[in-house]
Amino acid sequence: MRKAIDNLKERPGHERRAVAVGIAIAVVAVLFLGWSILFFKKIQGGSTQIKPSDVSQQARDQ
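^ that's the sequence the OP posted. Answer follows.
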């Protein structure tokens, strides 16, 4: 790992930036994938359902 970092330090700025952008895109993709899996599992489980009576009660409370 240390060798890869030292090799990267010797490269021109545009190549280092390209590597950084690639890593950032990979991190965002992994986070989005994890979020989407959890989100759809939560929807599939039905834990986000709202009863019509709850909505009407909230409207009266305001």
